[in-house]
Amino acid sequence: MFCKIINGDIPCSKVYEDDKILAFHDINPQAPVHCLIVPKVHIASADGIDETNADVVAEVFMAAPIIAKKLGLTRGYRIITNIGEDGCQSVKHIHFHLVGGRQLSETMA
Ligand code: 5GP
């Protein structure tokens, strides 16, 4: 489904784009700022990262400070990636939630 957003078949509220990454606002935000950073290459989840595609992870984390600055997150933020059923992953295309805009909870799970 994120492939359709990347291809432009489904609209999104774009925050950042380069040749490897698309970032857009989550449709159901769980924080004042909730953006999804999505590698354009289709990988089902972070569990599918290996030596052939690990560069996209670096691309995501290089884009994150640019996106955070653009969204005014001067006090910090959190990046999360859900994996599989126990991880509550609902979209089977690797993506990273960037959340912030308020003091986040200390609990992770
Ligand atoms: P997951 O549960 O897989 O970690 O996260 C999927 C996220 O994608 C959810 O936070 C959900 O709100 C978001 N999402 C699902 N469909 C769409 C959509 O069509 N557009 C946008 N912008 N976000 C979506």
Notes on the protein architecture:
With 109 residues, the chain is an alpha+beta fold. It is built from two helices and five strands; from the N terminus they run H-E-E-E-H-E-E. The chain has a five-stranded antiparallel beta sheet, covered by helices on one side. Strand 1 (14-17) and strand 2 form a beta hairpin. The longest helix has 16 residues, at 55-70. The radius of gyration is 13 Å and the shape is globular. It starts with a helix and ends in a 9-residue tail after the last strand. The model has no long low-confidence stretch (mean pLDDT 97). Bound molecules: guanosine-5'-monophosphate. Guanosine-5'-monophosphate is lined by residues 10, 12, 24-28, 36, 82, 88-91. Residues 10, 12, 24-28, 36, 82, 88-91 line the site of guanosine-5'-monophosphate.
List keywords for this structure.
single chain, 109 residues, alpha+beta, five-stranded antiparallel β-sheet, globular, binds guanosine-5'-monophosphate
Strand order of the largest sheet: 1-2-3-5-4
Structural class: alpha+beta
Low-confidence parts lasting 5 or more residues at pLDDT below 50? none
Task: Give the overall average pLDDT.
Answer: 97
Shape: globular
Taking the sheet with the most strands, its summary is:
5 strands, antiparallel
Give the end-to-end Cα distance, rounded to a whole number of Å.
26 Å
Compute the CA-based radius of gyration: 13 Å
Order of helices and strands: HEEEHEE
